[in-house]
């Protein structure tokens, strides 16, 4: 689905709901129907959530819109995130719901603007946005962290990603996940999450460790060492408990670790 198609579908959904629910019609008009583009709509919706202090809402709105207007890859990442939500979250079958209501999608979109600013060496403003995101959404992503596209941040509350975190494409992450460091050492100290990974609720992945492509981390696990590709791990500390038979577990969203076959590799990570 191309960029124009995502915006057209969102407009169509907005018109349908506005006609059905009179109470919501003004809200939908303000954030979608009266807007000229997806970038414009994102500016209005995200700024309305973020602004809680002395910085004028219009300044934040223009900042967000300009970021998405100036960087087509940034906007495309948001579109692919929207598509990921509709494809992987069984509670969602449209673009309108995550755009208007889902904190995971909104927090991730705000992070993308902060990351854009960070890359432009506008670090103070990026950190200011990070602080707003943390307060409003209970999601704390350092603006220097690198996050790919097609990300599902499901429920999102309590998600933390440190400065040198890397998350590749098509990753699904549940709430209360921490991608953190250990100790006081500076430098490259945070996890690297490869494509297709599924991170269960409450998983804690600490240090400069790699979660291999297509791996699955069970809920509430504590991961301190590298996880091989296409392996399921669980426990405190996490151990290998099986191989992943899904081609891409992040897309299937299957958290049932009891169904995996016995792993024939090493005894632990």
Descriptive report:
With 269 residues, this protein is an alpha/beta fold. It has 2 domains: 1-118, serine acetyltransferase, domain 1 (Orthogonal Bundle), CATH 1.10.3130.10; 145-269, UDP N-Acetylglucosamine Acyltransferase, domain 1. Helix content is 43%, strand content 14%. It contains 9 helices and 15 strands. It has helices at residues 3-20, 22-33, 38-50, 57-70, 72-88, 96-100, 103-119, 123-137, 249-252, and strands at residues 140-141, 146-147, 152-153, 160-161, 166-167, 172-173, 178-180, 192-193, 198-199, 204-206, 210-211, 216-217, 222-223, 231-234, 239-243. A hairpin with a 4-residue loop joins strand 14 (231-234) and strand 15. The longest helix has 18 residues, at 3-20.
Q: What labels would you give this structure?
A:
single chain; serine acetyltransferase, domain 1; 269 residues; UDP N-Acetylglucosamine Acyltransferase, domain 1; five-stranded parallel beta sheet; globular; disordered C terminus; 2 domains; six-stranded mixed beta sheet
The major β-sheet equals: 6 strands, mixed
The CATH class of the largest domain turns out to be: Mainly Beta
| Anisotropy-based shape | globular
Number of helices: 9
CATH fold type of the largest domain: UDP N-Acetylglucosamine Acyltransferase, domain 1
Strand numbers in spatial order across the main sheet: 3-6-9-12-14-15
**CATH architecture group name of the largest domain:** 3 Solenoid
Helix content: 40-55%
Described by its quaternary structure, the protein is single chain
Overall average residue pLDDT: 93
Distance between the termini: 39 Å
Rg measurement, Å: 19 Å
Taken together, the total number of domains comes to 2
- The percent range for strand residues is 5-15%
Structural class assignment: alpha/beta
Helix-strand string? HHHHHHHHEEEEEEEEEEEEEEEH
Q: Count every beta strand, where a strand is a DSSP E run of 2 or more residues.
A: 15
Which homologous superfamily in CATH is the superfamily of the largest domain?
Hexapeptide repeat proteins
The residue ranges in which pLDDT falls below 50 over 5 or more consecutive positions are 259-269
